[in-house]
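Researcher: Next entry in the queue.
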Amino acid sequence: MTDQQIQGWYRAVLILFFASGLLTSSWLARLHDVAHGLNLTAGPMGVLLLAQTVGSFSAVSLSGVLVSRFGAQRCILFAYLLSVVGMCGLGLGVALSQVWIVALSLTGMGLGTAVSNVASNVQGVAVERALGRFVTPIMHGFFSIGTVVGAGIGALDTYLGVPFSIHMWYMAALILTLVLYALRLCFSENYGQDNTAMMAQVSAYRVKDAWRDKHTIFIGFFVLGMALAEGSANDWIALALTQEYGTTATIGSLGYFTFVAAMTTGRLTGTRLLNTYGRIPVLRVTCTLAMIGLIIFIFAPNAPTGFVGLVIWGLGASLGFPTGMSAASDDPIKSAVRVSVVSTIGYAAFLGGPPILGLLGEIFGIRHGLLGVLIFVAVSFAMTRYLEIYKKQEPIHVEILDR
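Model: Structure for this entry, 403 residues:
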């Protein structure tokens, strides 16, 4: 590969992560519109969100197999087509106040999100190897930039009174355009290798082998807690602010915006810290920050103090998921399969935890329900010892098999 091809591929993957962030925040920033349009409280909303979880669980465990068989690029295209159809259906369902349409649309979005996220992470670690330097947090930083932009657009549309359906339809068109452009610059994640023995090892290492690998599972446990810290914030910050702090819908959207802005800042600045101090010390600090931020948000006496907690929580949750992906890819021979397994565990928590928290929120209140997240972040802190200290990779000269 030429440097120009590698750089173009890198930029394309950044666009894919940005589009994923847009997709995530395009409707989460206006979750209160979904609840209001369907006339649902926290408990029923948590049950409704399980529709997306069901879709994700149906696909996430098979995503690694699909990517290995059909290639990441084809999986990304199919997944985003499914997701944008779901976005359009979600807008329609809320406009018609039909819960079944919303549930079906969320299921489709869950299917698409699970496959696209695993496939994008496989592409991401392949680009990292091609570049020969640590860039995974920057890729996930672009996901966060996408969530910031999406949350900002959501807050602006809420303020301007743009109907939720119109918001979802034009965001779906924008996301699909970005993805189609990015895929033109992507390459296969399968490298041509002169070492046939190494290629044989790659072929021999399968998904079921990774599930039996204790080191991979421990990394997955770390990612699980940090993904839950991120996912729970995405789904419940806006509702916690409006329903329990008594703020307006616009302030609720701004709360979500504040969290994702803090995450973006942490991801874009965290790479230097990881290279300087190593994974374990940095992640122990960020896990601690996430726990402190959660405690402040849960027990804050007023909204301004809660916003302080959101900033600390966002900074603390910023590096967990991308650094876990990078740790899973340390062994190039096992990288694609291990990343798919760790992604499966992470996205299961990312998507499955928030609906369960909704049920807890119905009983104890949304903020007190977040105490469950605090426990899982503490588990992630304990798992940091299984993340090896990052060692700078030597540039790897590779040859592309096919596009």
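Model: The first helix runs from residue 3 to 28.
Researcher: Noted, moving on.
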